[in-house]
UniProtKB/TrEMBL annotation:
Species this protein is from: Cryobacterium tagatosivorans
Quaternary structure and interacting proteins, as annotated: Homotetramer.
Protein name: Flavin-dependent thymidylate synthase
EC number: 2.1.1.148
Entry keyword set: FAD, Flavoprotein, Methyltransferase, NADP, Nucleotide biosynthesis, Transferase
CDD domains given in the database record: ThyX (cd20175)
Amino acid sequence: MPEIEFRSDVTVELVRASAHDSDVLFAARVSTQGEQTLEESRLEGSETEVDQKRDRGLINYLMRDRHGSPFEHNSMTFYVQAPIFVFREFMRHRIASYNEESGRYRELNPVFYVPAPERNLLQVGKPGAYDFLPGSAEQLALVEQQTRDVSVHAYAAYQRMLEAGVAREVARIILPLNIYSSMYVTMNARSLMNFLSLRTKREGTHFPSFPQREIEMCAEKMEAHFAELMPLTYDAFNKNGRVAP
């Protein structure tokens, strides 16, 4: 049987992007300036301090007043490795394109998620307003040991079925939700801001969110790429309470 690997992290890589603040400005100004290609808009840039202030003001206005369509004329594709239970939460967001590896067509690798020691374990409060607190040393040890034991046992059973000639699509049904999968996900800035508003917990947001930590780990890595690609848009998103326009 292949050697089993346990991880406590997620992978998010920016594979391809066509995403610039100028994309937002180009789309927004077509109503007043008429035809202009996206390439011309990017080449023009904002060379003076007055231009930069004007651009920042326009993006902030669009965000504040929720004129959302100009934020859709861009694209970001991410490669994500995470446990399957995280992907099920991802795909609740029907504002992106997903392609995930298939356990019907390939043998799944023995890579399993086990919570890191700093991962909070206790859930207190009521639905929609939970707080999560650290677990005891005994609880941490229990979670780690049981997760490892179940993963090893399930993957061994999976291998036995494959070796007996059972179809991959049948053998996979016994694998636990903490096995890693991989996917490509493509979305525009408006969709990404919607995702970030729901899957990150931040002080000062207009609509507080209480995401599961593992999908928040993915969201934080995606957010870092977004901040670098579209700094004016990202700044306006934060200044206006992290509400998608």
